[in-house]
Design brief:
The protein contains three helices and four strands, in the order βαααβββ. It is α+β, with helices and mostly antiparallel strands. The radius of gyration is 13 Å and the shape is globular.
Length: 82
Amino acid sequence: MAGQMMILERATNAIRINELANDPSIYPWVHGSIVGPIDLSGVVADPRHVCLLGPRGAILFIYQQNAIYEVHTMALPRLRTY
């Protein structure tokens, strides 16, 4: 994939990001103190936050304060490159 452009699309609903977050290969790394399925619908619905989806996973920018975002990434193992 080196040298290829990756197209990212802003999520308008949480369907795909929820699928990624709840995938068994990702869930143990992202659930924190949550027990059960993760639902990021509220995060995606808030226009201050930005969720970008691409063919390799997702990048989630959580608004903290003006010009400061907390960033989370998710990618399925078969799509990760090191």
